[in-house]
Amino acid sequence: MINPVPKAELHLHIEGTLEPELALSLAARNGLALPYASADELRAAYEFADLRSFLNLYYRLMEVLRTEDDFADLADAYLERAAAQGVRHAEIFFDPQAHTGRGVPLEAVLGGLGRALTGAAGRHGVTTRLILCFLRDEPVSSALATFEAARPWFGTLITGVGLDSAEVGHPPAAFRAVYDLARDAGLHLVAHAGEEGPPEYVTEALDVLGVQRIDHGIRSMEDPALVARLVREQVPLTVCPLSNVRLRCVERLADHPLPAMLEAGLLVTVNSDDPSYFGGYAGDNFDAVRRELGLGEAELRRLAANSFRASFLPQEDKDAYL
Ligand code: ADE
Ligand code: ZN
């Protein structure tokens, strides 16, 4: 990747950047045994039938993240790799319930992430935002308790909320109350919808949760009226091409709806989701869509411009990139 195009990464789960080598070294540092003898053996387990089968490994492997230093090392390693792939700005998701639920204090998670993110502009030339995601397959009461526990970091470290984990059977509307509280707290609002779930979940995320961006949203393409609305309102969709193939939302990259989404006039961006598990970071996703979908220089520049336009940067910072 020589001279990767400057871009913003808007759909990135920090826990999904845990590379096998780091997982093994953190396991050793924390005195934990993993059922994999080597990084190659672990990498060989990265074969997924669907979102659920990925999430099973994603949550299991996260158990190596225990201390503030672990979270700082994880995020710092991501930011270094992202910078090398042309990422200038990263809006990063984290899943607090996946850590507090196994006894890791929120202070350790946010202390570590905060340390890495605060130094990122100076160390890596990457500006950052942090978005707290609620696990949609956990009860709403847990999301509400997590939200309240995270209040001390609102507006300083945490600037938005999102919704992730197993989608089908967990429609967005159940989380209305916590999104209302987040709006009142001045936070940005996003949600995963239309990855495996139906287009109706996208409509619900917009109408009931009032989100500003949809994460994934590829199944919106099944509903022409929804596409027309997303185009009219220029709702950003943070699309993750390599993820969609690895989780079998799309059979082959050549079948990905990204070109049709661009053609329709949607405000789409290209992102990496869980790059350690899905075969590549932001620049790798740009390379893959150029190679497999035949996107030209103009379309790649449009995707890069969209990434800044759809970001939560202040307008003057966006203008500097556009
Ligand atoms: N958590 C991490 N990656 C995810 C994805 N692709 N969809 C839903 N939840 C996730
Ligand atoms: Zn995601």
UniProtKB/TrEMBL annotation:
Cofactor binding description: Binds 1 zinc ion per subunit.
Q: Does the keyword Metal-binding apply?
A: yes
The EC designation for this entry is 3.5.4.2
Key words, A-Z: Hydrolase, Metal-binding, Nucleotide metabolism, Zinc
Which residues does the UniProt site feature Important for catalytic activity point to? H216
The answer to keyword GTP-binding applying to this record is: no
Binding residues annotated for substrate, in chain numbering:
D274
For this protein, the record's InterPro entries field holds: A_deaminase_dom (IPR001365), ADE (IPR028892), Ado/ade_deaminase (IPR006330), Metal_Hydrolase (IPR032466)
So where's the catalytic machinery, residue-wise? E195
So where does Zn(2+) get bound?
Answer: H11, H13, H192, D273
* Entry cofactors: Zn(2+)
The family this protein is said to belong to:
Belongs to the metallo-dependent hydrolases superfamily. Adenosine and AMP deaminases family. Adenine deaminase type 2 subfamily.
Outline what the protein does: Catalyzes the hydrolytic deamination of adenine to hypoxanthine. Plays an important role in the purine salvage pathway and in nitrogen catabolism.
State the name under which the record lists this protein. Answer: Adenine deaminase
Annotated source species: Actinomadura parmotrematis
